[in-house]
Design brief:
alpha/beta; Rossmann fold; 17% strand; Iso_Racemase_Enz_sf; MaiA/AMDase; Maleate isomerase
Length: 242
């Protein structure tokens, strides 16, 4: 059967055209399958609630873990609000759940990164909110490269331009954000390609790199007890948990 090793349920924003191809591009994931439900609302306040309501389908699918795969609408709720999204899905389904934001934070703590540079494809206001969230989680930010792709594009869909970006965009933004004082780099958003450049960034900067989809995959592995080294996904996927 598909997913004989693990079945993972993804709750995706309406616009997300990146996370599924990225996850399926990883050759080492034999026996792991991903199954998505897609939100129909783009109203940020409504997205987590709709995600909770849709999560019931994963009981029928028989998934082993669920991911609320929208970083922005999870960190915008603050530390307690982010956790409440995952808990509401767990209460609704009985299935272990992680949010995109929690996955990033867990990965940063695992790697011991206390000071990071940040790549944020969000508005200035929402980027500030993310920085405040990280600070509440004992992670300081030094160096930010923020870009709201919708401001520079002509498409009326708010997040569409982000999923059109090649991975080199993330690479160049990370190089601009980077400061020598940091322990590593964070690249946020599930709708932003990064997998192809993680290894190059770590080689060029000499520091660990955490991206949202990479952290989601790692966090799911931790939930399910899967051990899988993935060379292209950097240090996070190639060191053992102590």
């Amino acid at each position: 059967m598909y997913g004989w090793r693990a079945r993972v349920g993804l709750i995706l924003p309406a616009d997300n055209a990146v996370i599924e191809p990225e996850l399926y591009s990883v050759r080492e994931l034999e026996g792991v399958s991903f199954h998505s439900v897609r939100l129909t609302t783009t109203e940020r306040a409504e997205m987590p609630e709709q995600g909770v309501n849709l999560s019931y389908v994963f009981r029928e699918l028989g998934v082993d873990a669920i991911v609320y795969a929208c970083a922005e609408t999870s960190f915008l709720r603050g530390v307690d609000g982010n956790q409440s999204i995952a808990q509401a899905i767990i209460d609704h389904t009985g299935i272990p759940t992680v949010t995109a934001t929690s996955a990033m934070v867990q990965a940063l703590h695992f790697l011991g990164l206390q000071r990071v540079s940040l790549v944020a494809p969000y508005t200035e206001d929402r980027t500030r909110t993310m920085i405040e969230f990280l600070q509440h989680m004992s992670i300081d930010v030094d160096g930010v490269e923020q870009r709201d792709f919708a401001e520079r594009g002509t498409d009326p869909r708010e997040w569409y331009e982000c999923n059109l970006q090649p991975p080199t965009t993330a690479y160049l933004m990370a190089r601009r954000a980077y400061r020598e004082s940091v322990d590593g780099v964070v690249i946020s958003a599930t709708n932003f390609r990064t997998f192809e450049v993680i290894s190059a960034l770590e080689a060029d900067l000499g520091k660990p790199v955490v991206t949202t989809n990479q952290a989601i995959l790692w966090a799911v592995f931790q939930l399910l007890g899967i051990r899988c080294h993935i060379p292209v996904l950097g240090r996070l996927h190639n060191i053992e948990r102590g």
